[in-house]
Amino acid sequence: MSLTYELSEIDSIAMQLLSKVKSKTLLFYGEMGAGKTTLIKALVKALGAPDLVSSPTFSLVNEYQTSQGRIFHFDFYRIEDEAEALDMGIEDYLNTQDWKLIEWPQKIERLLDQDVQKLEVSVLENGLRKLKFC
């Protein structure tokens, strides 16, 4: 399944995505600049977090609180290997019932269990975005 959208429709796409996923661990694949972080910002907002969302490129993880629990936003673009994720305590995060939104999950794939939803974000030639459920 896939959804095609304009950036102006991102809030609606986030709500649609949340209604379709069966896991609270979402893996975001896509090239740099495809719109992964932008989509995650909309998801965090849709989940009810009042915070200003930013990319955790240097901190590796940002945490947001909602009335229904926590959201962890990871960005593993800058890590060299899985040991760095283990050092920052990724296993503790993965073992929670909270939302886990992970950019660049290919860097830690062997650490992830099977209860995940893989998503691919891409930019089409006409500037539209495509969200593919893998």
UniProtKB/TrEMBL annotation:
<keyword id="KW-0067">ATP-binding</keyword>
<keyword id="KW-0808">Transferase</keyword>
<dbReference type="InterPro" id="IPR027417">
    <property type="entry name" value="P-loop_NTPase"/>
</dbReference>
<dbReference type="GO" id="GO:0046872">
    <property type="term" value="F:metal ion binding"/>
</dbReference>
<keyword id="KW-0479">Metal-binding</keyword>
<comment type="similarity">
    <text>Belongs to the TsaE family.</text>
</comment>
<keyword id="KW-0547">Nucleotide-binding</keyword>
<protein>
    <recommendedName>
        <fullName>tRNA threonylcarbamoyladenosine biosynthesis protein TsaE</fullName>
    </recommendedName>
</protein>
<dbReference type="InterPro" id="IPR003442">
    <property type="entry name" value="T6A_TsaE"/>
</dbReference>
<keyword id="KW-0460">Magnesium</keyword>
<keyword id="KW-0819">tRNA processing</keyword>
<dbReference type="Pfam" id="PF02367">
    <property type="entry name" value="TsaE"/>
</dbReference>
<dbReference type="GO" id="GO:0005524">
    <property type="term" value="F:ATP binding"/>
</dbReference>
<dbReference type="GO" id="GO:0016740">
    <property type="term" value="F:transferase activity"/>
</dbReference>
<dbReference type="GO" id="GO:0002949">
    <property type="term" value="P:tRNA threonylcarbamoyladenosine modification"/>
</dbReference>
<dbReference type="GO" id="GO:0005737">
    <property type="term" value="C:cytoplasm"/>
</dbReference>
<keyword id="KW-0963">Cytoplasm</keyword>
